[in-house]
Amino acid sequence: MRYMSSTEIRETWLKFFESKKHLIEPSASLIPVNDPTLLWINAGVAPLKKYFDGSETPKSRRITNVQKSLRTNDIDNVGRTARHHTFFEMMGNFSIGDYFKPEAIEFGYELLTSEKYFGMPVEKLYITYYPDDQVAKEKWISLGIPADHMIPQPGNFWEIGAGPSGPCTEIFFDRGEKYDKRGKELIEEDIENDRFIEIWNIVFSQYNANPDVPRSEYKELPNKNIDTGAGLERFACVLQGTETNFETDLHYPVILKTQELSGVTYTGQMAFKVISDHIKTLTFAISDGATLSNEGRGYVLRRILRRAIKYGRTIKFNEPFLYKLVDTVVEMMESFYPALRQTKEIVKKIILKEEEKFFATINDGEKHLLSSIKDGSLSGLEAFKLYDTYGFPIELTLEYAAENNITVDVEGFKTALLEQKNRSREARSVKGSMKSQDETYLNFTEPSKFVGYDQLQVEAKIIKIFEDGIVLDQTPFYATMGGQIADTGTINGLVVTDVVKLPHGQYLHRIETDSFTEGDEVLAIVDEATRNLTERNHTATHLLHQAIKDVLGEHAKQQGSYNGPTKFSFDINHYEAIKPEQILKIESIVKEKINEQLAVVTHVLPIDEAKKLGAQMLFGEKYGDVVRVVDINKWSLEFCGGTHVKNTKDIIDFVITSVESIGSGIFRFEGFTNEVVKNQDKYLGHLLEQISQLETKALSIDANVKFEAKPEVKGSFNDILNYRLYVQNLSNLVKNLEKENESKLLNSILASADSFTPNEIKETTYVLTNDLPQASLKPLIDVLYDKMKTEVVILINQTSEKASFLVKTKSKDAKAIIQALAKETLGNGGGKPDFAQGGTQNLEALTNYLKGNGLIWNI
């Protein structure tokens, strides 16, 4: 077994599987394309899900890749262990309905043990398998793995909800007794150790998982698949003979640079490892178009950056330093990821800006921490507020606490953090499992031709009828894809409600009738007016995309789009708010290109030639060997399969009606083109109505409020953006007034807390209020509890529609009390032993309960 650089490892992996007739798939963007189930690409198989669930057919049924990946579920272990990372590279080989278990194991054995490839000694390999999977066990043994190196593991079964699933086999490399005197029991008992490193997992995807039945009753997949994942960093650790992944050539250059910048010598400290891992994550994610913000992907990256800074402070960094490491990351990784060089400067700028902001925030956080200390301790709730509001990692809070002899309620912090995670988990309604394969679609391979680029009416033959639609041998209907919605129209006079693309590329026309039979000759007609309107919006977004790049910079990449007959929307990434003057400049460029009457030309050519032309492609999207490129005077060149106008003059007019952040550094442009612009009076009227409503609401809160100058009504769509900006400013004004009013009301309520205190205070005191703001209830019960010095305070606030319950106690069980009250009043509730809350909409049940128990309820 010889030393291999990370570059050699990647090349060996890809060339081996290429020799086994696998198509090399480039690494996809870390930001998933058209997949709302994932926040990040987190495994090699993630960008290939549509092939495995059968919703799309790949160019090759054998694929190999080295996929950059990002996971944060084990972030607290990064730097503590030898192998945990947030950013890592996953090497994989995949079979979509082609070879299966025996061949996959043969490939694995040959690649690992042959001197032509990785040359690992057979005696160093240990293999786990699913106990029922005797085929896998016997295959490994037949190739030369000793029988006593085969370890059955009941957990070796891969499934994530409904969809493809199956047993797996894991490959471990034994680094020897130097790392642990114990033997294979470390694997058998799943004990964390540094001796046996899991380097590869091969999943035999052969069942359609069904959560409603036992695993033994899972049905076989119509197409069995192979899905594997091998960690590049772990291979590097083994083949380079390093103590941990962090001394390999995938991290050590960053650690050496960190050592140089800090003046602190690296001796294995956790801080160096955290910084190296996190700056790689930040560099790759931002390069792929992510930004830092308070939600979604941006929130994840902000936490990662702040965690890196926290550890940086332990090795004498007291000013921005992470941005200085970006050059090293790029130099280390650009041979395989050349796009890093193009985005390097913008990545550095974004990181520096965020670092400056956080170093300033640290001072505010320190002040809040000191002001929150009571009797030499910090509550779990305040510790969580420091974490959530000020971005203070709990480790940083504990560091301050230790320096100042302060105790911190860590358990209370963990409880608050868990509650937040539960809320976030519940808010995600989409699960990450693959869709179940549809065998009827997968088995349908008869070709069908799209002729809609040149014809909007054709005579065709029905070649297949499904329950939800029909397929024609040729069709003029465009299916929904690439941001463009499907054509409307008729087939034999019957309305086509939708058109979708099937796994093998045919178009399924959804049409409500059972009068057709296969073989029928039909007349398919696309609604020309709707198609033309849609084409104008689609071509306009191509102009918009290039105009955005001209104004904001080349880093601004398309993140999504919608092109229909009545409007367009276009999403891009950008690292800061887009200014009104920039929006107007972008709009003016598009208008200029429309007025120049530029020809819109479509080229159909090999993908390599298209790339040489400089055509833009949606990063992470999959393209065939031959692609369509939409060329607008060489100024805008994009890969695109959609339909377009012949000349920019056909767009007629263009206006941006709104630009807003939709989260995680993603901004959405919306607007109109073509005849829709003629509806300007109607749209302006709608905006003026919004303005009137907002101004009325603001005056109802504060009669003396002053408004900025209202845009002049000229009756032109050129003024729509100004109206939208005015509406947005008015909306922000109303929100601020509401907050100020709420704050004043809360202070007033708390100042008069004595008026809510009952004349008679018992062990359990029951307080009844009416029509108080919901936000005031928790602070009020806190004040009342401190004032009354009793065991339990139960606060019920009634409005005309519902009642809210709050219970606070230290000696009783608040959760049990709230649940009992909720049961009696036909409501609901829950919480923790010291504080709980709930409510009911059944005011009659509440009234009856109170009448039956008096004003004070004794437990």
Task: Explain how this protein is built.
- With 859 residues, this protein is α+β, with helices and mostly antiparallel strands.
- The chain folds into 6 domains: 6-245, 2-Layer Sandwich (BirA Bifunctional Protein, domain 2), CATH 3.30.930; 251-369, no CATH class; 373-429, no CATH class; 444-526, Elongation Factor Tu (Ef-tu), domain 3; 551-751, 2-Layer Sandwich (Threonyl-tRNA Synthetase, Chain A, domain 2), CATH 3.30.980.10; 752-853, Diaminopimelate Epimerase, Chain A, domain 1 (Roll).
- It contains 23 helices and 31 strands.
- Strands 1, 2, 3, 4, 5, 6, 7, 8 and 9 form a 9-stranded mixed sheet that branches. A 6-stranded antiparallel β-barrel has the order 13-14-18-17-16-19.
- α2 links the parallel β1 and β2.
- The longest helix is centred in the middle third of the chain and has 34 residues, at 339-372.
- It is globular, with a radius of gyration of 31 Å.
- The termini are far apart.
- The relative contact order is 0.06.
- Residues 720-747 form a coiled coil.
- Its EC number is 6.1.1.7.
Net shape: globular
CATH class term of the largest domain: Alpha Beta
According to CATH, the homologous superfamily of the largest domain is: Bira Bifunctional Protein, Domain 2
Q: How many DSSP-defined strands?
A: 31
Count of individual domains: 6
Briefly note the structural class of the backbone.
alpha+beta
Q: Roughly how many Å apart are the termini?
A: 73 Å
- Average of per-residue pLDDT values: 87
CATH structural architecture of the largest domain: 2-Layer Sandwich
What is the assembly state of the chains in this entry?
A: single chain
Q: What is the CATH T-level topology of the largest domain?
A: BirA Bifunctional Protein, domain 2
Q: State the helicity in percent bands.
A: 25-40%
Low-confidence stretches: 424-434
Radius of gyration: 31 Å
Number of helices: 23
Biggest pleated-sheet summary:
9 strands, mixed
